[in-house]
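EI: anyone free to look at a 261-residue chain?
SC: sure, send it
EI:
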Amino acid sequence: MQSEAEAKACCADLYQSDMAKLIMGDTLHPGGLGLTNKLGRLMGLQSGDLVADLASARGDSAQALGRVFRCRVLGVEFGAEAVRHACSAAPESGRAHFVRGDAECLPLRSGAFDAAVCECSMSIFINKAQAVAETARLLRPGGRFGLSDVTIEPDSLPPELEGELGQVLCMTSALTADGYVDLLEDGGFTVTERLEASGEIIKILDEVESKLAAFLAFQRMGGAAVGDSQLERSPELVAKVREMVTAGQLGYWLFVGEKRP
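SC: here you go
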């Protein structure tokens, strides 16, 4: 059986995989940097704020927040490769810096931050309540926590999406929209904003569908067998995910919580 540390490392590696980049793009979450900036506006980020970006991946969101809101951002990411990439890509004079760490045991000083963000990652954390508690610890009273993530209704995930594809899509351990609100409220936050952005999943599916169709057509035109039954079934799985979004079983939401005194 995998230890908790091994499970986290495996998950971090999966998010650096070619499959994750194909599905989610460089920012690794629906809506890209446009939705990152919308979350920042909902949070009321201001120039000079000190912001923690939890599970910051390759650093794109952290750098965007620093540029747009002129705040200082410290990205915390479990995956060593992602941290190396983020550090090498960030300009030395930039507003974003990166360290390796665990969102469930943050290597950050208590009460030192004005705000924190966590995009499309809470759903895959092993101990979500601990991650929220750690976020509350590092924020000053009144500090804001911006959370965006996949939502899924109970018992709606089909068996074929319970493996790596479902994990890349943040579906396997996602909560309902109300479940995230309860998670934040129980962790010391008052939820001040909640905004649905489920249409961003449809946009990703449109892009993935086009890429898959082109790739499979190229393979067949060249006379090569695709040789991967999961890849052959990908269009069917994409259609299933689309149905789930349309039926309201799968969604994407933004939340803002304010730390209670």
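EI: Residues 199-221 form the longest helix (23 residues).
SC: 👍
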